[in-house]
Amino acid sequence: MLRTNQKTWDIDRSAALFCVPGAIKEKDGVRFTVSVPAGQEASLLLYDKKSRRLLQETDFCEEASVGRLRSVKVIGLPWRRTVYCFKIGGRIVCDPYAAFICDTASGGSEEAEERNEENVYCGLAFESYDWQEDKRPRIPYEEGVMYHLHVRNFTKHAKSGVRHKGTFLGLQEKIPYLKELGVNQVKLMPIYELKTQPESSPEEKRYPEDTSKKEKPNCWGYGAGYYFAPKARYSAGANPVIEFKDMVKAMHKNGIEVLLEMFFTQDTPLREILDCLSFWVREYHVDGFHLMGREDIGPLLAHDPILMDTKLLVGSLPGWQEKRGAKEQTAYRTFAECSDGFLVDMRRILKGDEGILEQFAFRSRRNSDGFGIINYITNHDGFTLQDLVSYDNKHNEENGEMNRDGAAYNFSWNCGAEGPTRKKAVLSLRKRQIKNAFLLMTLSQGTPMFLAGDEFGNSQGGNNNPYCLDNKTSWVDWSLCQKNAWLTEFVKQAVAFRKKYKILHMPRELQMADYRSCGYPDLSYHSSHAWYSRFEYNSRQLGMMYCGYYSGEDVFLYVAYNFHPLAQELALPKLPNKMRWYMAADTSREESFLPVEEALPEDERIHTFPGRTVTVLIGKKEEKQQ
To answer: If we measure between CA atoms, which residue out of 245, 225, 242 comes closest to residue 286?
Structure first.
């Protein structure tokens, strides 16, 4: 059956030997393939791209199918001027494999004979693209410094300093900033097109004044989507496909990897998931994914030849990954754990909870030669770092849900006043706590991940769940960048310090043993007595000494963590001959990373460290006096 409003194109109904879902350009036309339930009729609808007028409807031939896949080829189709949909079982639907999605905003005609009920159409993207010998940076997890952001929120603010606000191009404009900060990996919240949300229920329509019952926009994008299509709203121009590729290529040119968050619902077919991830690697050169929603697919991806050197982040690593044999390990670790374990334990020690010191030590050293560990204290879901030290309670009234949404407990502490304040003592303590938090991430093994804007004190006003807000609450406030330049500079120094000393980011977990017979273990713990750790319930202070001999460095690092409100004494281990301790950083000071390292008294064996402070000492050969 063929229906048309103008001259038809020739149709090849023969089954392809190799069926790939979606629209594939062949030498003499475009082949369309879709999965159709048994017993249902299906057809291809072709529309004029500008007017959205139906041009042609062509039935899929069930006899020429491969499994449930039905396929037709349209000969000589002018794909640049055409959009399409499928009709399956009498319902007009979009292609789940569509390269991009366009709505009626750019066209639409009263003469259209049939409408997609969601008013969206599938676009064709077969433009050639010059990657200019693009190479993926292939950064090992231990060398990474990750930055988590929402493409639109990151540059939408009026003070963002970019021309193309809230877009892929706007993000590309921020590459110099990211490089200066020390970031070499960006993890993007969902950038694929989200499927239309369900309409409000009859009850919600009956009581429109109750905003808590109304359907909220999903600005974050976690949900079922057209997983192959970059979001058109994030494109400054008319072609999100090209613009996203330009952004990835520019990131790679500057040594920055691009990772995508992909939220697959439980009813997403496994074949579609595999095809999707492979597609983004092949077509867009992305470097990895954070798999969300369906984490049970890990075993299926572990041996995929396309994904074996692609980063795959999951919430927790099941036993199959942790028990992989040595023969399966490669220099490039594929999987990484990205969970809230580090967040919870570090937030608790940061605010001074008791009974958490031993768990804190575990999180700080945790690593693996088989998989990566992603460490973060703030995430998109929850408080920003500024709000973490400014609010005891969430303040989500603007969400329209009467503050009933979001996590009820955030392991936060307002430092003595709820929200904005002019109290100098509170503000000073908040500054110190923020610096402590950044050092908790940068001085721990694994991969530190920062939330965009934390490096200059971005706040959401105590809102810990602004998923439905596309306004200044969720937009990164770049006006604070100049006001809090001290914090940005501190973060740059913290990242640079981490990168300088290999012992702080080793490819495998430190053994806490002297396995090289050099007289020192690679990592050791110290209390008020050297070489003795104290993990009593009320202990909130610990000294960690790293021996650089295990990383090829002739240096020792001693990190003193004191999260007790009062000053505490910690013992300093004796160093090899001709070496002494120098102070490099102290978060209780205004200029925390010292311009000139200060030598401690040569015979000092016990040092008093201020309360709620992280201090870094360097043990090295004594510098000669000028």
So the answer is: 245
- pLDDT of res. 211: 52
Query: How many other C-beta atoms can be found within 10 angstroms of the C-beta atom of residue 307?
Result: 19
Cα–Cα distance, 123 to 103 (Å, whole number): 10
Tokens of 242: 């090209």
Split at pLDDT 50, 70, 90, the class of 111 is very low
CA distance 450 to 281: 24
- The residue type at 195: K
In this structure, are residues 105 and 80 in contact, taking their beta carbons and an 8 Å threshold?
Answer: no
Query: What's the alpha-carbon Rg for the chain, to the nearest Å?
Result: 28
User: Cβ distance 615 to 583 under 8 Å?
Assistant: yes
Closest CA to 386 of 436, 457, 439: 457
Structure letter (DSSP) for residue 346: H
Q: How far apart (Å, rounded) are the C-alpha atoms in residues 617 and 573?
A: 12
What 3-state class would DSSP assign to 202? helix
| Secondary element (H or E) of residue 335 | strand 335-337
Strand partners, 613: 562
In 3D, which of 227, 240, 375 has the Cα closest to residue 294? 227
Residue 554 structure tokens: 């002739």
Q: Write down the pLDDT at residue 200.
A: 39
Cα-based distances in Å from 433 to 349, 438, 460, 463: 11, 9, 18, 20
- CA–CA distance, 498 with 577 (Å, rounded to integer): 26
Half-sphere exposure of 132 (CA within 13 A, CB side): 7
The predicted pLDDT at position 326 comes to: 39
What is the pTM for the complete model shown?
0.93
pLDDT in tens, 39-56: 899 999 999 999 999 999
Neighbours of 401 (CB within 10 A): 17
Strand, helix or coil at 492? helix
Length of the chain, please? Answer: 626
**Structural tokens at position 88:** 């399956």
Q: With CA atoms as reference, report the closest residue to 193 among 161, 235, 225, 151.
A: 225
Reading the block at residue 182, the tokens are 């020390």
Average pLDDT over every residue of 540-569: 97
In the beta sheet, which residues pair with residue 103? 120
Three-state secondary structure string covering 227-246:
EEEECHHHCCCCCHHHHHHH
The β-bridge partners of 593 are 585
The residue whose two tokens read 């309409």 is 199
Q: At what angle do helices 424-442 and 485-500 cross, to 10 degrees?
A: 30
Contacting residues for 17 by C-beta, under 8 A, at least 6 apart: none
The torsion defined by the Cα of 184, 185, 186 and 191, in degrees rounded to 10, comes to: 130
Lowest mean pLDDT among 31-45, 200-214, 392-406, 485-499: 200-214
Q: What angle do CA 119, 122, 128 make, to 5 degrees?
A: 150
